[in-house]
């Protein structure tokens, strides 16, 4: 574990976050939603701790229906851009990095 992770755990005490969605404040709620979206799709086919290409495609269709369909070539390129370590699957860390980058892009518009 990186020292920055230890600092974050010490400062935020994630184990103390409420598990009651109704009483959560906005940012913990958003963090929980990211975990839920990932888990709902990662668990469909194989390892529940990662997204394969099919699961990522289903996640995109479910979460961004207005984006329309993507070609196999576009999906291949997108998947490769998310799979930072090149292990052939998208981990939660890689997924959250994508979500954060997309949030920054949307915030800038
Ligand atoms: Ca990966």
TrEMBL record:
Protein's name in the database: Protein S100-G-like
CDD domains: S-100 (cd00213)
UniProt keyword list: Calcium, Metal-binding
Pfam families: EF-hand_1, S_100
Gene Ontology MF term list: calcium ion binding; calcium-dependent protein binding; transition metal ion binding
SUPFAM superfamilies per record: EF-hand (SSF47473)
Residue ranges occupied by any EF-hand domain in the UniProt entry: 70-105
GO cellular component: cytoplasm
InterPro entries named in the record: EF-hand-dom_pair, EF_Hand_1_Ca_BS, EF_hand_dom, S-100_dom, S100_Ca-bd_sub
SMART domains named among the record's database cross-references: EFh, S_100
């Amino acid at each position: 574990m990186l020292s920055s992770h230890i600092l974050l755990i010490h400062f935020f005490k994630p184990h103390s976050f409420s598990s009651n969605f109704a009483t959560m404040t906005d940012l913990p709620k958003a963090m929980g939603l990211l975990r839920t979206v990932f888990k709902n799709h990662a668990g469909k086919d194989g390892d529940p701790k990662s997204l394969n290409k099919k699961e990522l495609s289903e996640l995109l269709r479910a979460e961004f229906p207005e984006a329309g369909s993507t070609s196999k070539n576009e999906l291949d390129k997108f998947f490769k851009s998310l799979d930072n370590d090149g292990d052939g699957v998208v981990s939660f860390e890689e997924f959250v990095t994508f979500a954060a980058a997309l949030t920054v892009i949307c915030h800038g518009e």
